[in-house]
């Protein structure tokens, strides 16, 4: 069996949709190589299909790129929101004021500020407990 007979039989199987992908590629390579009018129709069909396949692959590649870009944008948004939440929590903890006095814990800012102002007023007035203790120590 010559090459022409082999590929003519393969072409007949192609028209009957009984070929594999590899056989179709082999037939397309043969049809592109020879200048036989019998293979002109199959050459046109396979050429047209290969162009369509290339366009489909380009669209699929572009879709994958857009999908990757969308996933990256979503990840950036999630990371940004997460970091914003974390830094807000850290800032909130930094601004948190807690007072421990006489075995009690208080985080009421107004109560803490009035306690601080009272202590500072006593200190600068010279009648604070710390001031009295220091005087007693150094007067001995």
Can I get a quick summary?
Helices cover 78% and strands 4% of the residues.
Explain what this protein looks like in three dimensions.
By secondary structure, this protein is mostly helical. The chain has 2 domains: 3-57, no CATH class; 97-139, no CATH class. 78% of the residues lie in helices and 4% in strands. It contains 5 helices and 2 strands. It has helices at 3-15, 21-33, 40-94, 109-125, 129-139; strands spanning 99-101, 104-106. A hairpin with a 2-residue loop joins strand 1 and strand 2 (104-106). Helix 1 crosses helix 2 (21-33) and helix 2 (21-33) crosses helix 3.
How much helix, percentage-wise, in residues?
A: over 70%
Rounded to an integer in angstroms, the radius of gyration calculated over CA atoms is: 43 Å
Quaternary organisation of the protein chains: single chain
Number of strands: 2
Distinct helical segment count: 5
SSE arrangement, N to C: HHHEEHH
> Order of strands side by side in the largest beta sheet?
1-2
Count of domains = 2
Q: How would you state the average pLDDT, rounded?
A: 76
Question: What percentage of the residues does DSSP assign to strands (E)?
Answer: under 5%
Main structural class: mainly alpha
Describe the largest sheet.
Answer: 2 strands, antiparallel
* Low-confidence region ranges: none
How are the SSEs ordered, and which strands pair?
Blueprint: H1 3-15, H2 21-33, H3 40-94, E1 99-101, E2 104-106, H4 109-125, H5 129-139
Antiparallel strand pairs: 1-2
